[in-house]
Amino acid sequence: MPSGPAVPTDRPTDRPGDAADDAARGAEVLTAPEIGRALTRIAHEVLERNKGGTGLVLLGIPTRGLPLARRLAAKIAEVEPGLDAAALVGSLDVTMYRDDLHRHPTRTIGATDVPPGGVDDRTVVLVDDVLFSGRTIRAALDAINDLGRPRVVQLAVLVDRGHRELPIRADYVGKNLPTSLTEQVRVRLAEIDGEDSVRIAGGDR
Amino acid sequence: MRHLLSAADLDRATAVHLLDTASQMAATQAREIKKLPTLRGRTVVNLFFEDSTRTRISFEAAAKRLSADVINFSAKGSSVSKGESLKDTALTLQAMGADAVVVRHQASGAPHRLAHSGWVDGAVVNAGDGTHQHPTQALLDAFTLRRHLRGDADNPDGVGLDLTGLHVAIVGDVLHSRVARSNVNLLHTLGAEVTLVAPPTLVPVGAESWTSRTSYHLDQVLADQQPDAIMMLRVQRERMGGDGTGAGRTGFFPSPLEYTRAYGLDARRLALLPEHAIVMHPGPMNRGLEISADAADSPRAVIVEQVANGVAVRMAVLYLLLAKEKETTP
After folding, report:
1. b/e per residue A34-44 (b: at least 16 CB within 10 A)
2. pLDDT string in tens for chain B (330-residue length)
3. Which of these, A86, A179, B25, B213, has the minimum number of CB atoms within 10 Å of its CB?
4. Nearest to B324 among A101, A142, A148 (CB)
5. Which domain covers residue B23, as residue numbers?
6. Which of B24, B29, B42 to mutate to test the interface with A (most CBs of A within 10 A)?
């Protein structure tokens, strides 16, 4: 669950270099190698918990959940020979299932693309960048419901920043990040933003 | 975007965004469960003062697939036949709490009046007014054109693209056609080139000032310009009056047979089109008048697909108008 609006163009596009800009960019809490290590650990945890990669489907929630799901699939395919990374990954757009559509300007709808085998009787792992209120995940559970009936649904997130508004928890967490509500967590990924980093900005600091 | 009244109101970015949204909507319609919860609790009123099959059903299907409540209103069998005015009908709908009003009216400008008079708070969607505009038809035509002529294996719907460089011939009763007017506006906005082909009696006054070319000779246009798509328009005899004498004659052309010879799409003219060209028709078709069975049933005809795309496009319009916070400025 991104902390800001889900529309990518609404994200501030801060560029490195300008010193005056640094306060606005906030403190870096995860560097590129740390993101890589967290994903490697999650990949192993997924395989451990599910006793291998049989019937595994990774559904990334656009925008930044999707590249994370792809990276996770590549790492899983590395350790578990015989799995095709591309066939593990799908994307799941939750825009049309959100409960806050009427409180925002129109959101752009992303693509939903399920791997060939579908989700019926599979182990579905939802992948997102930030877990915050839990409302995105609630919407995602509704969206999966319309696609089929998985055997089990699990949740992997890169950052859990707390402040849940629904009884939802993650099965795999890259980093638990205690935050205040006024702070903003910004996940940047090479595929979309050109660099890997997680920063925390705003608040009282 | 607060209302959708005319295809001329859409700029290129908005139109492409609408088509991209329609493409995502179309993807959801291939699923087993087609219904989405997006507009739950919203009410859409279909206000139809004029007969319609596909547009009304299409809007109804679109609203229902997004879980909106649909109220259908047709002038026949309502208080309009007792002489109730548009204003009083609109105030009644407002009192019932309509979030969107889809209106078709025989008078050009009726949706504009409805949107700007303050009679209703909701979004107004023009589903065809007189001989003026039919924006959702133009959008579904643009969507169909883009999918067939701009899409490729990686991007079957042509998401993000416009129609730059495409050449479309719109043939037939341009004078009475709101579909032609909307398409001239929208296809030009999206970068396509449009040629109108019609007998001189069916070309509207002032058409030379439109963003399209005009020709009186169909064979010449097909041979010289090799259009990427040909859109046949219905001969709207109900709007032509009975100036002629019997047997389907009107004051606009000598006889139906002569019209078919000069402007009908048959197997011979179909063969003149380039290999990739598609045949479109907004429906309902007058088979044997503006289009022959050969052309209408050929594999290059996308007429049935246009109807399917209509649902996706109307879902996108309703989504973009209704799934957001209410705008207060008109």
Report:
1. bbeebbbebbe
2. 899 999 999 999 999 999 999 999 999 998 888 999 999 999 999 999 988 888 999 999 999 999 999 999 888 777 777 788 889 988 988 888 899 999 999 999 999 999 999 899 999 999 999 999 999 999 999 999 999 999 998 888 999 999 999 999 999 999 999 999 999 999 999 999 999 999 999 999 999 999 999 999 999 999 999 999 999 999 998 888 765 555 556 788 888 999 999 999 999 999 999 999 999 999 899 999 999 999 999 999 999 999 999 999 999 999 999 988 766 544
3. A86
4. A101
5. 7-133+308-322
6. B24
Q: ipTM value of the model?
A: 0.80
CATH code of the domain containing B162: 3.40.50.1370
Give the separation between CA B194 and CA B167, rounded to whole angstroms: 6
Å between A119 CA and nearest CA of chain B: 13
Query: Can you give B6-54 as a three-state secondary structure string?
Result: CHHHCCHHHHHHHHHHHHHHHHHCCCCCCCCCCCCCCEEEEEECCCCCH
Nearest CA in chain A to B23: A111
Residue B124 and residue B152 in one domain: no
User: Which structural domains are found in chain A, ordered by start?
Assistant: 27-202 (3.40.50.2020)
The residue of chain B with its CA nearest to that of A144 is B33
Comparing CB atoms, the residue among B21, B324, B326 nearest residue A109 is B21
